[in-house]
């Protein structure tokens, strides 16, 4: 590797050029086409001209506060509103509680229903205003 400032050879682990003191930015990855070292922010490989693919941003569909609230009120015991909002672990626990009512003489089913109803109300009044991906409910 050579110093971009003065052109002298720089050892691979050095952070600064020993001749001119220029701060060396070490490449973070390699070009998938030619294998040449490239910086993390670069979009086109300076060696071969290959267009470097950029990582895709995950896009999430916005969730409705009204839909989530109504699902919580009417189907809250099954945890459907939590699955809709992306809280699948919480939804699974509510389904297990709902189905576990056979073993607990309906007590866990009643608790799951109350839990879902209360969450539905909290969603509608705005106390719960984010989905599982930390996106605001509309």
Feature tags:
single chain; 138 residues; mainly alpha; two-stranded antiparallel ribbon; rod-shaped; Double zinc ribbon protein; TM2; membrane
Describe the model.
With 138 residues, the protein is mostly helical. It has a domain at 65-125. The protein contains four helices and two strands; from the N terminus they run E-E-H-H-H-H. The chain has a two-stranded antiparallel sheet with strand order 1-2. A hairpin with a 6-residue loop joins strand 1 and strand 2 (37-38). Helix 1 packs antiparallel against helix 4 (107-125) and helix 3 (88-99) packs antiparallel against helix 4 (107-125). The radius of gyration is 27 Å and the shape is rod-shaped. The chain crosses the membrane at residues 66-85. Residues 62-106 form the TM2 domain. Keywords: Membrane, Transmembrane, Transmembrane helix.
Detail the topology: elements first, then pairings.
Layout: E1 29-30, E2 37-38, H1 65-75, H2 80-85, H3 88-99, H4 107-125
Antiparallel strand pairs: 1-2
- Give, in order, the helices and strands: EEHHHH
Q: Could you name the ranges where pLDDT drops below 50 across 5 or more consecutive residues? A: none
Task: Give the beta-strand count.
Answer: 2
Strand content: under 5%
How far is the N terminus from the C terminus? 52 Å
Short description:
With 138 residues, the protein is mainly alpha-helical.
């Amino acid at each position: 590797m050579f110093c971009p400032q003065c052109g002298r050879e720089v050892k691979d682990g050095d952070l600064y050029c020993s001749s001119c003191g220029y701060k060396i930015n070490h490449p973070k990855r390699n070009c998938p086409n030619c294998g040449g070292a490239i910086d993390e922010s670069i979009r086109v490989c300076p060696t071969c001209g290959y267009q470097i693919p950029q990582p895709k941003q995950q896009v999430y569909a916005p969730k409705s506060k009204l839909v989530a609230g109504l699902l919580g009120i009417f189907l809250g015991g099954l945890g459907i509103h939590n699955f809709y909002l992306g809280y699948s672990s919480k939804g699974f626990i509510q389904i297990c509680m709902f189905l576990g009512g056979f073993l607990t003489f309906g007590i866990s089913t009643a608790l799951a229903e109350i839990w879902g109803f209360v969450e539905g109300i909290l969603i509608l009044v705005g106390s719960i205003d984010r989905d599982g991906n930390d996106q605001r409910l509309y």
